[in-house]
Amino acid sequence: MSKKVFVGNLDYATTERDLATALADAGEITEIFLPIDRVSGRPRGFAFVEFSAQEEAESAIEKFDGEEVNGRPLRINIAED
Q: Among 26, 33, 38, 70, which has the highest number of CB atoms less than 10 A from its own CB?
């Protein structure tokens, strides 16, 4: 299992800082990747968050899948390679 999770259904205004704050209780975040659309220049509505341990990634899924950030319920699952 991976230490990286896919976080979907993000509001376009959500920042890396918003995600770090929202998911901090799950464990140590080592990287956040928030893809930007090349044409519009705005976030694409999803992110990849990597934790320092697999258990922390699992904890993030358990604790925060369905929780609201910026008015939208997060969809969190293990990221595929």
A: 26
CA distance 36 to 73: 20
Cβ(47)–Cβ(4) below 8 Å:
no
| Residues 6 and 81 sit within 8 Å (Cβ to Cβ) | no
pTM of the model as a whole? 0.92
C-alpha–C-alpha distance, residues 76 and 66, integer Å: 8
Give dist(CA 32, CA 64) in Å, integer.
16
CB 12 within 8 A of CB 37: no
Is residue 51's pLDDT more than 70? yes
